[in-house]
Amino acid sequence: MSPSFLFFLFFLLKFNSLSFHASSPPPSVYDTFVNCLTKNSIPQSEISKIVYSPNDPSFNSILQAYIRNGRFFNSSTTSKPVIIVTPTVESQVSGVVICTEQTNLQLKIRSGGHDYEGISYISDVPFIMLDMFNLRSISIDTNDKTAWVQTGAILGELYYNIWKKSEVLGFPAGVCPTVGVGGHVSGGGYGNMLRKFGLTVDNVLDARLVDVSGRILDRKSMGEDLFWAIKGGGGASFGVILAFKIQLVTVPQTVTYFRVERFIEDNTTTDAVVQWQNVASKIDNDLYMRLLIQPITVKSTKSIRATFIALFLGDSNRLMSIISKEFPLLGLTKQDCLEMSWIDSVLQWANFDNTTKPEALLNRKGDPLNYLKRKSDYVQTPIPKNGLESIFEKIISLGKAGMVFNPYGGRMGEIAEGETPFPHRSGILFKIQYSVNWHEEGLTAEKDYLSQIRDLYSFMTPYVSKNPRQAYLNYRDLDIGINDQGPQSLEKGRVYGTKYFKNNFDRLVKVKSMVDPQNFFRNEQSIPTLRKQRKMF
């Protein structure tokens, strides 16, 4: 019988009313944790401002502030942390790591809360949640075009701070401004400049991280293996990332945006989607064209809408010349093209209107809460027209689930698969994000919509990558595997790990085994160690 299991039995016997959904944690756990923080040089005056038990009036508001998926917002079946800690300085994070380990609890780390499966703030075992939102300082150096950004910052804050310093600098990260820097970057975040500049992790120069011993390390002191691992391998498997130093990129004074909608009733729409597949990853690297495939209902008739959304790093005249030559079936007109500054294009992609000021990017609240599920795939061979037609019919029959096609090529194809843990590089035409949102409450509705997206994912099997069927870490999907951290941890980790990381999974396991051999930093899809793990309570 394992020590952790014996501890759990003791836990239950001593606190018969214990529930991880209960109103307060066992006093001994809270007291032990707080006493440990004190011993690790965190004054009581600071502890009282950053440590919250479920008895605290602010506990629920802090927990719910960065929950981005309605499935986990207020459900009686959703586990809650035993304690929430909201550090305000880096040294407090060191104490939290040390003291969570000493209390034999799991540590969950949340930066922006956008993990699609909520694993940064929920767990099936007792856990402490480390919420990084107070650590969000951003320092821009326009001379060498770099920035230090703490991981509790959101992308909107980063973009705003860059813009305030320079109108010709940017950063190639995501289009949703409320996404947290920590999870986004460490998972291999991407945005609408990836064909020109690659991923976020292709532009990371340094990092600060708290390891399992509570040490604060930078690139030099952590070593190149660990630095490599956190650039796309998911930081929460290796430590608590405090900040990244990033390389900013030069953007033109004028960029061009367009959004063009087509419907399958138009006989050329499917042909345009076929042509998009053949040109979107090969066209000028300054052009990124996302394609949304969504079911709609028009006058009681079910249909498909194909929406082409683009960012072009240049003016509309050059854009029109490229499109008319290489993608004529789009039917783009000069009137469709909106010239603007890069920061205004950030607002456009975030679905703000033309009058919105950049200060809107500082709003951390985000969109109204939806129930949602996401999945991902990668396409290496164009889907033929008859295949697209059958896919459109399937989407219509399902009713709600849709897809987003994100083109690769350009800079993405120039970087070797092993350069970072993110392996989806040369040979990828586009990535698919499967998407379903709903508003109805209850398990019946959830079961229906989850069935829809899983059905669509299954239907797409003939058209996507194989051996492995690749997936994107930042589109977290527990359907492809869950690790209970038991004796088969390595084998279970390999199931999802090869989908996310391909051959890089083995190197990630070696790094994990070196820096966290006891597997303290773990979650439902973390990187396992080489040694067999005890099943954690």
Descriptive notes:
The chain has 537 residues and is an alpha+beta fold. 31% of the residues lie in helices and 20% in strands. It contains 17 helices and 18 strands. The protein has a seven-stranded antiparallel β-sheet. The protein has a five-stranded antiparallel β-sheet with strand order 5-6-10-8-9. α2 (27-39) crosses α5 and α14 (385-398) packs antiparallel against α15. The chain is globular and about 70 Å long. 47% of the residues are buried.
**Number of DSSP-assigned strands:** 18
Helix content: 25-40%
Q: What form results from the Cα inertia axes?
A: globular
Low-confidence stretches: 1-23
Radius of gyration: 23 Å
Measured by DSSP, the beta-strand proportion falls in: 15-25%
| Classification by helices and strands | alpha+beta
Order of neighbouring strands in the sheet with most strands: 15-12-14-13-17-18-16
* End-to-end CA span: 12 Å
Q: Major sheet, described briefly?
A: 7 strands, antiparallel
Provide mean pLDDT, rounded.
93
Count, helices: 17
Keywords: Alkaloid metabolism, Disulfide bond, FAD, Flavoprotein, Glycoprotein, Signal
Organism: Solanum verrucosum
Cofactor: FAD
Signal peptide: 1-19
What descriptive keywords fit this protein?
537 residues, alpha+beta, seven-stranded antiparallel beta sheet, 18 strands, globular, disordered N terminus
Layout of helices and strands:
Layout: H1 3-14, H2 27-39, H3 44-50, E1 51-52, H4 59-65, E2 83-85, H5 90-102, E3 106-110, E4 127-131, E5 138-141, E6 146-150, H6 155-165, E7 169-170, H7 181-186, H8 194-197, E8 204-210, E9 216-217, H9 219-222, H10 224-229, E10 240-247, E11 249-250, E12 255-263, H11 269-279, E13 287-298, E14 301-312, H12 316-326, E15 338-340, H13 342-349, E16 371-379, H14 385-398, E17 402-407, E18 430-438, H15 443-459, H16 489-501, H17 504-515
Helix pairs in contact: 2-5, 14-15
